[in-house]
Amino acid sequence: MNEVTIKGEVTHVDEVREYGANGFRKQEVVVETGDGKWANPIAVEFTKDHIEKSQTLKKGDRVTIEARVNGREWQGRDGVTKWFTSISAYKLETEGGSDGPAPAATTEPDSSSYDTYDEYGDGDDGDDVVF
């Protein structure tokens, strides 16, 4: 697995969303990592047990996020193959935001493989999704 460290300011915290019959949950957080001259917003996903780490985040918080870069291939019914990349957080440190420092929330990554729920699928749970 490829791992990255993302440092910057939170610019958006999405609501927790649930997908599919199995109740796969995720919350997306956008972190601005640019140098002030160029914007570089990075969307980071908190999934499964890691969602609890993102619950207290708010716009303006300065964060350091440890994450895995995950890729997957998907082929639609039309035969067109697409590739998707996601950044899945497993560790979060809050350096303080507009309301002052917040407590750091950290844990080590779990040993399970990345959940392969296909949020980009067409709703068919058939065997045409390749991971």
Give a verbal description of the structure.
By secondary structure, this protein is mainly beta. The protein has a single domain, classed as Beta Barrel (OB fold (Dihydrolipoamide Acetyltransferase, E2P)). The protein has one helix and six strands; from the N terminus they run E-E-E-E-H-E-E. Strands 1, 2, 3, 4, 5 and 6 form a six-stranded antiparallel beta sheet that branches. A hairpin with a 5-residue loop joins strand 5 and strand 6. The C terminus is likely disordered.
Spell out the blueprint of helices and strands:
Elements: E1 2-13, E2 17-19, E3 24-32, E4 41-47, H1 51-54, E5 62-75, E6 81-96
Antiparallel strand pairs: 1-3, 1-5, 2-3, 3-4, 5-6
Describe the main β-sheet briefly.
6 strands, antiparallel
Shape: globular
Straight-line N-to-C gap: 15 Å
| The CATH class | Mainly Beta
Question: What name is given to the CATH topology?
Answer: OB fold (Dihydrolipoamide Acetyltransferase, E2P)
E-strand count: 6
The computed structural class is mainly beta
How much helical structure, as a percent, in the residues? under 10%
The CATH architecture assignment turns out to be Beta Barrel
Compute the gyration radius: what is it?
Answer: 16 Å
- Domain count, please report it: 1
Order of helices and strands: EEEEHEE
How confident overall, as mean pLDDT? Answer: 81
Residue runs with pLDDT of under 50 for 5 or more positions: 97-116, 125-131
Q: Find the CATH superfamily.
A: Nucleic acid-binding proteins
The total count of helices amounts to 1
Beta-strand content: over 45%
